[in-house]
C-alpha cells in the first residue's frame, strides 16, 4: 500500500484515522516518496551499473553480473582480477577485460560522449589508475582526453600540452611519487582539478601518503582530492562536473 | 620589447636574425604570449583579489591592501586577525571585518550572484570555516545557500533540508569531529560535493586528521576533499563548478 | 590444603601459629578464595569455552579442542583457517565451520537465547567481522538480530530499519571505509552502541585506522569502540550488557 | 499542520488528494512522527540538558543557559572555563562550578540516583576526566562509586578494591600514561568496562595516543573505549547500561 | 709493526723521528692499543659468537658457521629459518635447531650458568621472542627461570608467581597486544625490568607499536625497553646486569 | 585486626571458623602480609621519597612536602616549576632548587654514594634531562660521573672519555636530535647502557620521536630505552643496576 | 618549422606578421629553444640511459632496452628482477646482471672514471643499496671507493678508514637500523655527505623510517638525505658533485 | 706533551719505554695527530664560527660571543631572538641583526665571495629559512643569487628564471605547503639541488611533514633533502659543493 492508496482510503472512510496515522509512520522511508534520496541514480540512468569487484567471491560476482546482464543494461566492474574476468567471460562471452585498468565491462549500448574531461598522469605507472578514471567517465557518457606521462620532473612535456588540457570542463590529475602534478596543472588552468594520488613509489612514499599530502597542501587554487588510487571516484565526480557544463 | 615589435624589426631588417633568435629565447615567458598560463585569472576578472593574511606582517599587509585599493578593485583578505583588520581600517575605513570567518573585505562593487552553491556544516563550531567558503564563493559571484548544524548525530535535521540542498549546482560540506557529513550528503545527492574537514575536535581527532581520513574514505560517490580548514579552497572550487553550470 | 583445612588445624592446635601464618602467605592467590577474580567465568558457565585460533599451531589447537571436547562442553574457535578446521574435523567430526566468520564450533548443547542484540554492518564486506560478533553473542546465549548492508552512503536503507534496531538492548555497529555507521545509529537510538571498525578499505584507510578514528570522534552520545576487526570483543561486551537487561 | 490534521482534512474532503500527498512529502521529518528518531531524548527526560562549553563564546553560552534556565530544567555545562562560569553566575547565581571537572551546573531538582556505576582512575591526574564521567552519570540519575588512584604500578591498591568495584553494573576506567588499568580491571570483573584514555603523560605518550592504543589492544574481554579525555561520553554510555540493569 | 716495536726502533735510532711520527698516525686504531674499544668482547670470552641469520644468504651463513666451528667455539644463530638450519646441519651435524625461538646452535662446551634471570611472557604467542631472550642469556652463562603466560588479563596467575620472579637479579618481561605486563611486574618488584614488546596482535596494535608505547609510558619505576621482538637484545642486556650481580 | 590476631582467635576459639574464613577473604591485600608487593620500597629505604611535581597544584604539592618533611625524611621533587619551588621554600626554607634539572630537594641526611654510574649527553641542551637522571641516582645513593657534550658529530670528544666511562657499572646516555650517542657508546662498552631520548631538536625530530626510534633500533648490544625526557626513570633503573654490582 | 626558419620567413616577407606571432605561441616549448630545459641531459651525454625496471612489464622493458641498444648506447636498468634480466639476456646476450644490486647493464663502451666518490655502509645488509649507488656513479664516469660494513656499533672500523674516505670529493653513506653512520662520518669530514637510509631493520624501524629520521636530524654539518633505499639517487647526485670538483 | 716531544724523549732515553707506551695510549685523541678528524674545520678557517642560539640562555650566549669576539674572528648566530640580539648588542655594539632570518652577526672582515649558489623559494613565507641558507653560504665565502617566490602554483615565474638559476654550481630550493619546487627545479637543471622543506602551511601539512615527504619522493634526479626549516644545513652543504667547483 503506497501513500496514494492510503490517502484514498482515508478519503473514502475505508480506514480508521488513527490506523492510517500509524500505518503512515511505519511505511519504509522510500515509500513515503523519498525519490529525492535517489536523485543520484539519475546520473546512471541509461548508462548502467558499476560493481567494485575486489574482495568479492567469484561466485557472488558472477551472479551480480548475470542479474544485471539479464536486464540488458551496461555493467562495469572495477578492480577485477583476471580470474574474476575469466569466470564472468565463461558465462557471458561478451564481457571485455582491460588488464591495465582491471576493468571488466559488458556494454549493451555505447553511450554518446559529451563535453570533455582531461585525464593526466605524472608517469607511466600511474596509467592504471588513470584508465579507471577515464573509462568510468566514458561509461557515464563523458568524452575523455588522455594526457599521460607529463610529470613535473620534465615540465616541458606538460607545458606543451597545457593549452589542450585547458579545453576540458574538468581535469583529473593522477600522480604517485611526490604527487606534484595536480598542483602545477591547477596553477596553469581555471578549470576544476580532481587530484588522484597513487600508491606508486617506495620508501618515504608510504604507499601513497606522500602524494596524498602533497595534493592536499597544494598552494594552487581549484583542486580537490580523492582517496589514494581512487580512479573511479575521480571519474565519477568529473562526470558530474562535466554534465553540469554541457547540460 | 614584445614579440610583435621584435618580429616587426626582423621584417624591417632592423635587427640581425641571430640576434632576434637570441632575444626571443631570453624574453620572460609571459612576454611570449603565455596568456594561457593566466587563464585562471579570468575567473577573478571583475571580481577582485584575494590575500591570505595569516603570517603576513601588518605593515606588509596594509601595503598590499592599499595597492589594490588604489586600483579600485574588490579585495578580500582571509584568516585576518582583528589587529590586522584594525590596521587596515585605520587607513581604509571602508574595510569591513567578519570576526566569525576572519575575513576582511573592501567591496567597491558587489558582483551579481548567479547559480547556487550549498554550504553545509555538521556543527556550529564548523561555521567559521564554512563562512570562509561561503564568502569566497560570493566574492567571486556565486549565490550561496547556508545550511548549518545538520550533522549526522541528529540525522533528521539533515533529512529535512536535503531537497533544498540538492537544488544547488555544487555542495560544500564542512565537518570536524568524525567528519561524516559529506559522505552522508553525497549519498543523497547527485551533485558534486566538496568536503572540508575542520580541526574542530579533541583527542583522537588529531587536529582534523580524523575528519580528513573519514572524507577521503567515504563510500559515497561524487565527493572530493580539500585541506583541513581550507574554506577558501572549497569556496573557490565550488565557484569554478557553479560557473560551468550557469555559463 | 585449602584455607578451611588450615584454619581447622589452627583451631585444633595441629599446626604451629607462625607456621600457619607462613603457609597462608605462600598459598596461591586463588586458594585464598579469590573467586572474585573469576567472576567473569560465570558469564561462560553453561556456555562453553572460546579459543583464539590464529597463530596457534594445528597440533596445539587440536589438543585444546580435544581437551575441552572430552569434558562435553561447547567450544568456539575464532579466526580459524580452513586447514585448522579440517584438522579438528578429522578427529572431531561434529565440528562445524563457517567460512565467512572463520568460526569453528562444537556445540554439545545449544543455549537458550534471551534478550536482543542488533548487529549492523555498513557494507557486505563487513559481514565477516559482524558474524564473529553475532555468533559470539549467540554462543553466550544472546538473541541476535542481523541488519546488514545499511551503510550511510545510502541512508534510506538504515532509516527503514532503525525502529527495529532500537528494540535491541545493545547495538553492535560494524563498518570499514569511512566508518560513519555507528555514529549515525547512535544519533537515532538511546541504546548503547558498540562500534567495530573493520580493516575493509584501501589507500588512506590505512588498514582500518580511518574507521577507528571516525568512531572514536563521533559526536553522537552512547558509543564506545573496540579494536579493528574485533568482532569477538563486541559480541562479548554486548552480551554482558544484554544480560544486565534481561536478568 | 501536523499529520493528524492533514488526514482529517483528507477525510473531510477539505483538501485535494494530490495536494495532500505533496504536503505530506514536504513536511519536516519530525512532523511525520519520527519520534523514534528522538528516543534517546527519553534518557534525558526529567534530567535536563548538557552543553559542551569549550570553544563557545561567553555571550552565546550565557544565552543557552538562560534559555534552558527559564524552562526550569537542570543544566550541565562540560569543559567550562572559569571565565565562562563567572559570566553565567553573574546572571544565574544558582550556578555551581567544579574546578576539577570544569563542570558548571544549575540543578533545579536533584534526580534520584539508582543502580551503580564504578568510576576508577589510574592516577590522581586522571581525576579531572573521571569526575566529568561521574558527574555526567549522576546528572542522569545513576549512583556512582568513585575508586581513584588504583593504577597498575601499585596493583595491591586495586586488588583491595576489586570486590567493591564488581558490585557496579558498569565500570568506567580512566587512565593516562600507559593506560593499562581498564584491561586489568576487565580481567577481574564480569561487568562491562568503558575505558577512557587520558592525555596525561609526556614524550612517547603522544597526548594520549599510547593509552588509547593500550586500551584498544587489551586482551581482556568486556572492554570498549571512548575518545581521549571523553569523560562525558563514558558517563553517558555507562548510564545507558546502568539503566538497562535497573529498569 | 706494533707500538712497542716502533718505540723500540725510535729508542735504538733505527727509525727517523719524523718517519716514526708519521707511521704512528697511520696505524689502525686498534693497533694503538684501543683494546678498550673491545671490552665488550670480554662478555663473550669463553662463551662464543652470535650470528643474526635473517636476510643472510644460506651460502654466506654456512661459511660463517664453518669458520667459527673450525675454531671450536660455541655458535648461536638467531632468527634462522628451517632452510638455513638444514644447510648448516648438512655440513655440521652437531648443529641443533629450536623451531620456536628460531635459534640454531653448535655448543662445543656448555657454560656454567650463574645468577638468575626471570623471563616472563604475557601470552603463549610471546614465547618465541621470550625463548630468544632466555636462550641468549643461557648461551652467555646466565641461569634462567621461565614464567610464561602470566598476562595481566588474568592477574592472579602473575600474583602467584611474583615472589619467585623477585628472586632474579633481572627480569625480562615480554608482551604483545596491550603490552601491560612489564609495568605491572615493575610495580611489584625492586629488580630492573627489561621490557620486550612483541608484534603479536592485530588492528590498532600496528605490529607492536601499541605494546612499545605502553612500555615506554609505564608509570612504574625500574623499567627500560628494547626494540619490538628483540629477544636477543633483552637476553644480552639482562646477562650484563646479572653478571654485575654475581661477580 | 591482622592475620596474627585472627589466627590467635581461631586457636583460642574466640571466633567462629566460617566467620574467620570470611574475614580473611575480606582483609585488604596488604594486611594479608603481601609485603612482597612492597619490596621495591626497600630501594628507597633510608633514602627518601620522590614526587613528580608537574601538573600538581601548588597547594597540593606543598602539603605533600610538608607531610614528608615532618617525618624527617629526604624529599626530591622532579619537574618542579620555579613557582612551585618558591611556594615550598616559603614554608620550608631548607628546600633547594636546581633550575637546570628543575629538581627541588630537602635533604635531611646526605646518603653515602657507592658504586659508579656514568651519565653522558650528546649536547649541552640535553643536560637538563641528564641532571634529572644524575641527581636521581645520587638521591638513592649512587656515585655519578658526568660526561657531558660528547655527541657523535665530534666523535673524538667521546673517544677520549670512553675509558673513564667504561669504569662505571651502568651508563646513562642522553641525546636529542638524531640520538646516536647511546648506540655508539654501547658499541665501545660492555656495561649496560640506559638510553634516554630527549625532545631537543626541531622539524623531523617530532619532539623526540626521531631520537627514540634511533635508540630502539641500535645495532649495538647492551642498550635499553626509557621514555623521551625521562631522566628520573634512567636514574632510578641505573641505581638498581649499580646496587646489584656493589652489594 | 623551427624558430630560425620562422624568423627567416618573416624577414623574407614569406609569412604574415600576425600569422608568425600566432605560430610562435603555439610551438611546443622545446622548439622555442628551451634547450636549457635539457641541460641535465648533458650529464648523461656519452654515458647512456638509465631505466627504472621495477613494476614495468617484461615485454615493455625488453622493448626499451632494444630501442636503446640499437642506438649503440650504454644502458643501465635498476631494480631489475632476475626474470626481467633473463628476458633481456635472451635477446641481448651482452646484458650483464648483478644480483646484489639488481642492476642489469649493457655497456657498449666503458667510460673513463674520474674524481673520487666514497660509498660507505653501516652493515653488510646495506650493500645492495650501496652497490646501486656505486654502480650508478661508475656508469656516469665517477671513480668509486667502496668502504663497507663500518657501522657505528664498532666505531674503530670506521676510524681506521676515515682518512681514506676523506680523500673523496663526495661521500655516500648508506645505513639501515638506527642509521647513525652518515652523521658520524660528516662529523669527521669536510666533504659533502649524501645519506641513504635503507629499509634494513625490524620492529620500530618501520621500514626505514627510523634511519631516515636519524639522518635528517643529524647534528653534523654537511649532510643531505635521499629517499629510503634510493641508491640511484645518491649515485647520481654524488656524480654531479664529483664532476663539479674535477671539471 | 705532544707526540713529537714524547718520541724525542724516547729517542733520548729520557723516558722509560713502557711508560712512553702507556702515555701514548692515554693522550687525548686529537693530540695523537687526529687532525684528520678536524679537516672540516678547514672549511671555516678564515671565516669564523657559527652558534645555534635557540634554547641557549642569554647569559651563556653572550659569553660565547664575547669569547669569539676577543679573538677577532667573525661570528654568526642562527635562530637568535630579538632579546638575545639586544643582550649581545649591549656589550658588542658592532653586532648586526636580521629579523627576517633571525641571524645575529659580528663581521670582523667580510670574506671574498666566490663561485655561485642559487637560493630559491616557493613563496614569500619561506624567505626566513632561505635567508638563513643564503647568509650562511655568504658567511663561508660563497656568492649567492636569491630567486624568491617562484613556486610551482605559478610556474611561469620559475620558467623565466631557470636559465639564471642553472648558472649556479649548486641550487638551494626552499618550499613549504606542498613542497614541489625542488623537484621541478631539479627536472630543469643538471646542478645538484639541496631541498629544504619549511614548516609553512596548515592542516594536513603537519608542520612541514608534507613538504619533507614530497621532496624525498621527487622523481627528478639530483636532489637531496635536509631537515625541515634547516636553512643553515643547506647553506653549509651548498658551500661545500660550491667550493669543490671553484677550487
From TrEMBL, chains A, B, C, D, E, F, G, H:
<feature type="domain" description="PurE">
    <location>
        <begin position="115"/>
        <end position="247"/>
    </location>
</feature>
<dbReference type="GO" id="GO:0006189">
    <property type="term" value="P:'de novo' IMP biosynthetic process"/>
</dbReference>
<dbReference type="InterPro" id="IPR000031">
    <property type="entry name" value="PurE_dom"/>
</dbReference>
<dbReference type="InterPro" id="IPR039476">
    <property type="entry name" value="P2CMN_synthase_LarB"/>
</dbReference>
<protein>
    <recommendedName>
        <fullName>PurE domain-containing protein</fullName>
    </recommendedName>
</protein>
<dbReference type="Pfam" id="PF00731">
    <property type="entry name" value="AIRC"/>
</dbReference>
<dbReference type="GO" id="GO:0016787">
    <property type="term" value="F:hydrolase activity"/>
</dbReference>
Amino acid at each position: 500500500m503506497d501513500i496514494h492508496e492510503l490517502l484514498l482510503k482515508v478519503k473514502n472512510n475505508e480506514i480508521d484515522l488513527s490506523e492510517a496515522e500509524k500505518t503512515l509512520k511505519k511505511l519504509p522511508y522510500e515509500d513515503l516518496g523519498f525519490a529525492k534520496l535517489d536523485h543520484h541514480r539519475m546520473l546512471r540512468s541509461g548508462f548502467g551499473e558499476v560493481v567494485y569487484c575486489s574482495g568479492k567471491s567469484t561466485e557472488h560476482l558472477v551472479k551480480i553480473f548475470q542479474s544485471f546482464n539479464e536486464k540488458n543494461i551496461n555493467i562495469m566492474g572495477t578492480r577485477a582480477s583476471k580470474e574474476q574476468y575469466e569466470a564472468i567471460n565463461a558465462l557471458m562471452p561478451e564481457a571485455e577485460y582491460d588488464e591495465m585498468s582491471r576493468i571488466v565491462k559488458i556494454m549493451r549500448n555505447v553511450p554518446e560522449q559529451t563535453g570533455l574531461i582531461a585525464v593526466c598522469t605524472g608517469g607511466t605507472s600511474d596509467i592504471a589508475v588513470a584508465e579507471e578514471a577515464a573509462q568510468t567517465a566514458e561509461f557515464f557518457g563523458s568524452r575523455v582526453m588522455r594526457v599521460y606521462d607529463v610529470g613535473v620532473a620534465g615540465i616541458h612535456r606538460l607545458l606543451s600540452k597545457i593549452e589542450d588540457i585547458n579545453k576540458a570542463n574538468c581535469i583529473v590529475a593522477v600522480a604517485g611519487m611526490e604527487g606534484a602534478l595536480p598542483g602545477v596543472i591547477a596553477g596553469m588552468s581555471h578549470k576544476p582539478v580532481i587530484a588522484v594520488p597513487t600508491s606508486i613509489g617506495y620508501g618515504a612514499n608510504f604507499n601513497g601518503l606522500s602524494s596524498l599530502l602533497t595534493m592536499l597542501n597544494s598552494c594552487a587554487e581549484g583542486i580537490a582530492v580523492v582517496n589514494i588510487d581512487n580512479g573511479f571516484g575521480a571519474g565519477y565526480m568529473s562526470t558530474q562536473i562535466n554534465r553540469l557544463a554541457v547540460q
